[in-house]
What does this fold into?
Amino acid sequence: MHIKKHLGFSGLRKMLSKRFLQVEDARDADKTEYRLHDFFMTGFAMMYFQEPSLLTFQRRLQKGCNCNNLKTMFSIESIPKDTQFRDVLDQAPLNKLEVIFSDYLHQLQSNKYLEHYQFLDGRYLIPIDGSQYFSSKKICCPGCLTKQSKGKIRYHHQILQAVIVHPDMKQVLLLAPEPIQNKDGSTKQDCEINAGKRILSKIKKAHPKLKAIITGDGLYSKQPFCFLLTTV
It folds into this structure.
């Protein structure tokens, strides 16, 4: 299947760069060495090259690999150091980036590419599932989920992801994820089912005309959640 150029990597990179530049930087301009755009784009580049860590990524760049590519491919003026990268992104308003997922899906929709993912009666198959991406016995933050076993506490972060899939398509289309994390002032720990309720509302708000078939594992086979599927 032929994919138009503006829907490929070049178009995605330009769209990301445009959105990254629109995110307001709350840092003191007189004390910033790197653009917030470059922090976001460096993270994207690291994932694109499938590097296991930012430190490994920087070591490869220091050896002369991909240095020019980062400027020409990702519009990165300068690569932040590992510590700065983590500190800045930890404080960055990541919720401002959720619109990127809608941007790209709308482009696919307007170019008739999304139609290839219609699964049943013009509807789109959207499985949702939670995933843990951080776990530690020592490192934690106010948003960490906790699990206690044998008197010891383990801290972890999870996320709920929704994607558009089709049995005949190799690629999956990501929708905006929903963090599973404790909120400030909350006395009850967050969980996947609550995140599931939030992500349903998020999908409906971002794509009000998208006809969806939502699937999940046995965790979601409860009356309140099934009822919510008929109302959002």
User: Anything to note?
Assistant: The chain has two domains: 5-93, 98-229. The beta strands are 118-120, 123-136, 145-149, 152-164, 173-174, 178-180, 212-215. The chain has a mean pLDDT of 87.
